[in-house]
Every structure is written in structure tokens, then in C-alpha cells.
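Components:
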Amino acid sequence: MNDQLPSDDYVAIAEELTKHFKSGPLVVKAVDGVGFRLPRGKMVALRGPSGCGKSTLLNLIGALDRPDSGRLIVDGVDVSRLSGGGEVAYRRRKVGFVFQQFNLVPQLSATENVTLPMEFVGGTNGTSKSRARELLRRVGLAQDRHERRPAKLSGGEQQRVAIARALANEPPIILADEPTANLDSKTGRLIVELLRSLRKEYRTVIIATHDADIAAEADIILEMRDGRLVAS
Amino acid sequence: MKTMRRGLRTILRNPLRTGLLVAVLAVSVGLALIMITVNEAFAKRLDDIRAQVGTTITVRPAGSFGGGFLGRGGFGGDPGGENPATGEDSTAQQATLTDDALADLSSIEHIASYSRRITSQYTGDELQSTTIEPPEGAPAPNGAPAGGFQVPILVTGTEDPSSLASLGVEDAQIVEGRTFNSDEAQANVAVLGQTLAENNKLAIGDTFQLNTTTMEVVGIYSTGTQFGDNSLFLPLETARTMFDRTGEVDEVDVQADTASNVERVADDIRAALGEDVADVSTELSSFEGISSPLSDAKSSSQVGMIAALVASAAVILFSVGLVARQRVKEIGILKAVGASNWHVTAQFGIETAVISVVAAVLGALATFPLAQTVANGLVSDSSVAAGPGGGPGGGPGDGGVAPGFLRGAEAASGLLGDVKVAVSPEVFLYAIVIAAGLAIIASAIPAWYVGRVRPAEVLRHE
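Structure:
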């Protein structure tokens, strides 16, 4: 990990963050000069229509993609300057992802999916497994579902597993990209409630959503349009 | 360890994909292993043949290879005359080989020893030859007396009495008395074939007239054939004096010091004597001609082995490439939750290695029942392709190949008949080596592919 910068009470600070994509002759400004300061222990809703740049911004915060320009500091790390091993270490320790499509490894059981991030940071098998089971219990997955593979779980159950996986290495930030889009409304509410509960652990949860009801549950709402933050 | 466990789980939890991949790869690797095993068996058999060939190089006057020497220096017959084998006038094109010319041999390296021979056909009336009765109803050969074929008596002067060999005389065994020795280089002693001795009522210690010279019978040999036993052997110098062929040589057996130097020595002799003076032939070249079906089969197995290995590599590369593309989302997920490129590549590498090893072991097991069948098929195909009599080892009727070569040809033919493929446990070692090679080759694809995958890109498009 490089560039440990002071961030005070802000877990994420962005300045003039930009990410453009080329699509044939066109340049798509997915993130266009975005700036924000996000405090710790809050639930942040990143709201906006499809294609406004929410997912791209989450990917930049999660170091799944690199910004073209600007500065992004997360938990004291200058993410905009990360590459190679630094990027990998950052993903392991600083962020946890929850995707719309759940994105669990299909051939691994629920417990094994949750142990994955712990394995990558060198956790022992026994410790990782018992922590994974504890996390699965915490997110409300029934005991008899722990050894099932994703295909044998419902959408809500898969998303719970994904949340447990995101929490595995106790990251300060959880990034959730449309976490309820593939769930029925009741299950969606339960998932949002689960994410909200993470604030108690002083974690910041950033949820990208176009659902106004979910956004209403957040402590902070960032409104995006055409790659820019238009309101907060 | 965790990566290995994850790799194994992935393999076991996709039995259909794993099974298909293992099956296809096992066929390819098995074929390669069979070809390796068969190739080794062929190589061993060829080595056996070469080991039996010996180190003899035969030198004859140029143009005499067909037996033309039989017409030279004979007594009681025409000088020159027709080659009985080819029917051509041998003296018209036959060079002369002499002791003077052979002096050059002493300057050639890797010659262990050499011995000279002269051979003439006896047509006088002091000795009675044997007569071979034709089959009932068959016409007598041209010029033969009615009622049978008079076998010519061959008289060979040799300076190597330990090896009684001449045209038609093979595997001669002394059955009575002894052969002459080095102290008798110019003595009037003879070793007779059993048939010739019986026809002339000669026994050990008896004397007989040969071109007005009184000779003593010191030994009687047998070859088991009427033709071979109708000859006699004299010391070289005795024969030369008797035939008035001082300094002449019909045949020289040169021994190279090692089998590996045979062809080199033969080339040196050709260069020293000149190809217009001497025909130089080796048993090795004769054997190689005879063993060409086996050599062809060995080449085929080599080609098969290479093709099978290439096919194995192609199968695993294609399969792993395909699997990596199919699993691009999984790669993205793993990287998103903190896997390094190394973690992901190692997992793919372990999966590939396990599949390769399992396939290789199955292929190795298949080698045991199938290798012999494949070997038989390859030898059979090559023999058919070469055709009967395809080698240079024809026989006397084809122009008179040297007696030693005839023995060699028979031995080689016997060796060719039945190549036993012994599949050793080493095949498993080869299997592991192949599997390791394939795994390393195949791991290059996921290593390259994983490095290129950006999680954001592959997960964005889901």
C-alpha cells in the first residue's frame, strides 16, 4: 500500500475525477470531473439513471478501473496512483463489492465464496471457514444453505452471501452496485436493511441505485447525471 | 495449498467438462506414449540387428560382385568365361585386385585385420564332383549331362582358415580333422567339403592330385548343403602358386575395429583403392537394406509420436483457451475480491496440470494393451510398402551376394519377423514429463489472459 494520506473523518475524497471511454468515434464521459468527500460510517446513495456513470464511479473507488485524471483518496490511499500489487492489496483490504448479478464463483459453496477474500490475504483454512460461517449467520443465511453452491440458492440468499463475502476482510468501504435490482421488493428491502446495519461497524456503504426508495434510506445522496454529480 | 484445493474443487465440480477434456487429452497423450514405446522397441531391434552385423567389410575387384571371379585363373577351364550367375562375360569389365593395391590398406585407420581369398572353379577330372538329380520330369539344365546337374567344384585359397567361407559355403563346421594353420601358409594341405570327400573316397590323411600337385586332406567340413560341401579350401599361397595367380586377390575380408567405424573404414578403402578398382561393401549396408521396413516403421512411429504430441498440445491449448474465455467472469470476480494475477493463473495451472496428469496416466495405461498391436501394424504396413525382396539381399540368383551377407540377410529377416514391444513402467515417467510439458505450455494462455482481464470490463458487461 502506498501513499498513506491523512483523510481525517472522510473515508473517501475525490477531486476532479475523470474516466472517459471511447466508443467508436465517440468519447463517453462516464465520470467527468467528479469531486466529493464521504464521511465514515454512513450509507451513501449514488443515484441516477442508467448510464449516468454510477457503476464507473464505484469501479474507480473499488480500483477495478483506473481514472484518466483527478485524484481519489480512500482510507488514506491514493487510489488514482495505484497499479499492480498495490491495486490488489487495496481491493483485499479497503473495499468489499456487492454486485447486481451477485457474482459468486459458481463452483464454490456459499462458505467457500466467503472464505475467498480471506484466503487471498493469507488466512488459515480453519479460521477463514469459521469466520465465513459467522458472517453468513450474520447476514441471515440459514445454516443448511452454507454448503450449497450459488445455483442452489435464491437471489436474496446469493446477495446475502455476496454481502458476507464483501465483509470478509473487514473493509472500511462496501460498494454495492444496484444490489436489489435482481431481487423482489421484499427481499430488496431486507438487503438494504442489512447494508444499513453495517454503519454500526463504522463502515461506509456506497450504494449505486436508480431506485428513489432505496436512496431515501441513505444518509447521503449523490445525484449523478451524464458523469457529473449534480446534487448532494 | 488453498489455491490447489480450489483448483481441484473446480475440476471435480465440473465432471462433464473435466471428463471430456481428460478423454480427448488421454487419447492424444496415449497415442504419443504408444508411439514412444513402439519407437523404442524398433530402435532396440535395429540396435540388435546392428550388433549382429559385425564389423566385416568385403572388398572385391570392381565388377566381380556377381561372382565373375569364378572364371579367372581356373584350370581345366577357359580363362575368363561367363559369370554363371549373370550370364555376362565377366572378364570384359572386371578389374584386378592385387597385393600391391592392397598395400594401401595399411595406411587406413581403424582396420583391425584383413584376410585375402582367391576362388576358382575346378573343371579338371582328378576329382569327381557331385551330381544333383533334377525333379522327375524336369528337363536337364543347358549343358548338363543327361540325368543330372554337375555341381561345380569351387577351390578357395584363404589366409584365414578359421573362417571357411566362399560362394555357397556358409556356416562351415569342421566335422573331421582340422583346418590348416599359419605354419602351413604354403603347404599342400586341403580341407574338403564332406560331399566332395565322400564322392572321391577321401579321408583325413589321404592324398589326392590337384592340378598335378599332391595334396593332403587335413580336414573335412560340412555346411549341410550339397553345393556348399562340394568345395575345398587351400592355404592362400598354395592356391596362388597352383593357379598361377601370384599377387592376385578375389576377395578381402577387412575387419574394422568397431561397428561404429565400419562405414568410415569402408569409405576410406573406396577412396584408397578407387571405385574403378574395388567394390567395397559392408554387412551393415546390407542389413540396413534388409531392415528397411523396420526403419520405415520406426520413422512412422517417430512421425506419429510428434504428431500426437502436437495434437496433445493443441488440444490442451485450445481447451484451456476456451475454458479461460468461458470463465472470464470468474476471473473478473476473483480479481475483484482480491486475487492477484498469480493466484488466478496458479489455479488454472493446477487445473491444467491435474487434467494433464490424469489424462497422461490413462494414456500410459492404454499403452500396455495397444503398443504391440500398433507395432505389428506399423511393421506390417512398412513391409507391404517395401514389397517382397525389396532389399539388396537378393541371393545368388540375383547376381551373387556374398555368402556372409546371405547369412546376415537370413538373420535380419528373422529379426524383422517379430518385434516384441515391452512396455516398461518408464512409460509413466514419460507420461508425467509430457503432462508437465503440456501443463506448462497450457498455463501460458491463462497467464496471458488473466493479466489482460480488467474486472471492471468483464463485470460491466454481465
